[in-house]
Amino acid sequence: MESPAAWMEPSLDVDKLSYEIFSILENKFLFGYDDPKLFLAAGTPPETPLKVSTAAGRVRILSIDGGAAGTSDGLLAGVALSRLEASLRKLSGDPAARIADFFDLAAGSGAGGVLAAMLFTRGPDGRPLFSADDALRLLTKNHSCLAASGEKGLLRKIFRRSGGSSCRTFFRRVFGDTTLRDTVKPVLIPCYDLASGAPFVFSRVDAVETDGYDFLMREVCAATCAAAAAVEMRSMDGRTRLRAVGGGLAMRNPTAAAVTHVLNNKQEFPFAAGVEDLLVVSLGPGEAEIAGKSPAPPSAAEFVRIAGMGQADMVDQAVAMAFGKSMATNYVRIQGHGVSLGKAVDEVEAAERTMAERNVESVLFRGRKLTERTNGEKLEWVTEELIKERDRRRSSSVPTVLIKPAITPRTSCSTITTSVSSITSSGSPRF
């Protein structure tokens, strides 16, 4: 038997093997190498499968950023989703198709979280509560009623002042008494909990498991948008209490959280083994006013805005690096570049113009560069890929996702029937 000193001494063979294993893992992460010869040095038999077969298809993830000061919250994402849904209806031949029909999970922060909630919450008929066009109309048609107050931008008033009674009434009218369980697909909506001093992610998966993580959807939306004041809220059983402020402060770009959730949730996404098994569509908030033009020192609010924008860009860059060579086929980022929505006279028109723009994207080991395709061309490609994935699933006997149903739905979606019909009809809703 060897003495402890013997096996504690460094071994060149062990160091070499460790180096080879590390190199293999690094290459696998960055480039998705799947050549069996790479694993021979580590002792892996060549006949051993190196990755799960992609026969089960790709998990489709929609991620929507929270807005930033100086932008029109949600408008760029709303325009992109409206255009995407229209293309999906045309290409699929289904005039009633909804965004939720073509995605397996939605993540949204701030106004992006509200958009995700509107598009994925179950309506009275069992279908998603809003179409993308209805959601966009809801975000834009109230400009006239705000003109008298001199405030510009519907969503900056509704979403950022989430502690106000008008905002509470608005969310109540939209979502009624529905909870996280009442969504047609999994959703992830972040906030920051002042009570625990940590980010908190509202998740349908957790809500289905226990009442302690199920919350009213109207309070979830108020929490992820809160900025002026914290939102005091509690779970449906009263055991979990939060003092929430906006998700944009802690997780403006929720893409990384969504990817991590899917890759680690083997109950609902059993075949998602790596980024090559995902199709991610990430929507940015548009371009804010460019910092540094004024000689005056940045204000505290400006520093917060810069930090939020930097965090969102860093997540985008990190996710792009993680996808490596799969980025071109598995990850799409839609973002404004050159048009400041916050300065536009017609913000919806400005958001439409961003569809004809080429934006910047992260490139492996090469920083960032201007894309070759416009945002509109990217959406066209995404449409085709989503249709292909739908057709593949229809012809396959292997389920891509196994979404856990809510065994005992708590609410009746009929409580929001009036809200849907009144809010999406012509004219402005009265709060």
TrEMBL record:
Organism: Elaeis guineensis var. tenera
Keyword list, A-Z: Hydrolase, Lipid degradation, Lipid metabolism
Encoding gene, per UniProt annotation: LOC105049082
Enzyme nomenclature, EC number: 3.1.1.-
Location of the PNPLA domain: 62-259
InterPro entries named among the record's database cross-references: Acyl_Trfase/lysoPLipase, PNPLA_dom
Example GO biological process: lipid catabolic process
Stated role: Lipolytic acyl hydrolase (LAH). Possesses non-specific lipolytic acyl hydrolase (LAH) activity. Hydrolyzes phospholipids as well as galactolipids. May play a role in disease resistance.
An example molecular function term from Gene Ontology annotations: hydrolase activity
UniProt keyword annotation of Metal-binding present: no
Family of the protein in this entry: Belongs to the patatin family.
Record's comment describing the protein's domains: The nitrogen atoms of the two glycine residues in the GGXR motif define the oxyanion hole, and stabilize the oxyanion that forms during the nucleophilic attack by the catalytic serine during substrate cleavage.
PROSITE patterns, A to Z: PNPLA (PS51635)
Protein's UniProt name: Patatin
Gene3D superfamilies (alphabetical): Cytosolic phospholipase A2 catalytic domain
Keyword Phosphoprotein annotated: no
